[in-house]
Design goal:
The structure is a single chain. The protein has 121 residues and is α/β, with parallel strands linked by helices. The chain has a single domain (4-120), classed as Rossmann fold, CATH 3.40.50.2300. It contains five helices and five strands, in the order E-H-E-H-E-H-E-H-E-H. It has helices spanning 12-24, 35-45, 61-70, 88-97, 109-120; strands spanning 4-8, 28-32, 49-53, 79-83, 101-104. Strands 2-1-3-4-5 form a five-stranded parallel beta sheet, sandwiched between helices. Helix 3 links the parallel strand 3 and strand 4. The longest helix has 13 residues, at 12-24. It is globular, with a radius of gyration of 13 Å.
Length: 121
């Protein structure tokens, strides 16, 4: 059975590119374009991994991550945060929010795929 990855990113081009890459790598992929839609899709589809952007409308990635990690049903789903906020403070906030890994934008696709494979083991 294919692993399911949910991509939560308000930048539609990045979300589409990530979805294509995930599907080409043998994963099932779905997209949400803001934090609230992301939370709803997690509840609907229970993905195996979430790629979560930080800066989004309605609810930022830190808040989405905190809500997921505070919920016993969803806290075991690995969260990989993506952000143009590459400074240490953003990484620290990602860790505080409960993210399992953090990747600055722009990213190298090979490094991203390596992190995904590690998180899905």
């Amino acid at each position: 059975m294919k692993k399911k990855i949910l991509i939560v990113d308000d930048e539609k081009q990045i979300a589409r590119m990530l979805k294509i890459r995930m599907e080409a790598s043998g994963y099932e992929a779905d997209v949400a374009n803001d934090g609230l839609e992301g939370l709803a899709k997690v509840q609907q589809s229970q993905p195996d991994l979430i790629i979560l952007d930080v800066m989004m409308p309605k609810m930022d990635g830190f808040e989405v991550c905190r809500k997921l990690k505070d919920d016993p049903v969803f806290k075991s789903i690995p969260v990989l945060m993506l952000s143009v906020k590459a400074e240490e403070k953003a990484t620290d906030l990602g860790v505080i929010a409960g993210a399992d890994d953090y990747m600055p934008k722009p990213f190298e696709p090979e490094i991203l795929m390596e992190k995904i494979r590690k998180l899905l083991k």
